[in-house]
Design goal:
The chain has 2 helices and 2 strands; from the N terminus they run E-H-H-E. With 61 residues, it is mostly helical. The protein has a domain of 40 residues.
């Protein structure tokens, strides 16, 4: 007779993180105005985008 495997129970009761919905509709700022005219790395670019999104209140859960 085969042995039964025990099922692992994960944490329950907490909803999974669904992420953010970001809407840039109606924004008139150019990418150059947000990022600057000098070359930057990806991590700095991400920080600048999120700073802009938070400043303009564009993110919704």
């Amino acid at each position: 007779m085969a042995k039964k495997r025990k099922k692992r129970k994960g944490k329950r009761g907490k909803l999974a993180f669904g992420g953010y919905a970001i809407n840039f509709k109606g924004c008139k700022d150019s990418i150059e105005k947000i990022m600057g005219s000098t070359p930057i790395g990806p991590s700095v670019m991400t920080k600048k985008i999120w700073a802009y999104v938070k400043r303009k209140r564009l993110a919704r859960r």
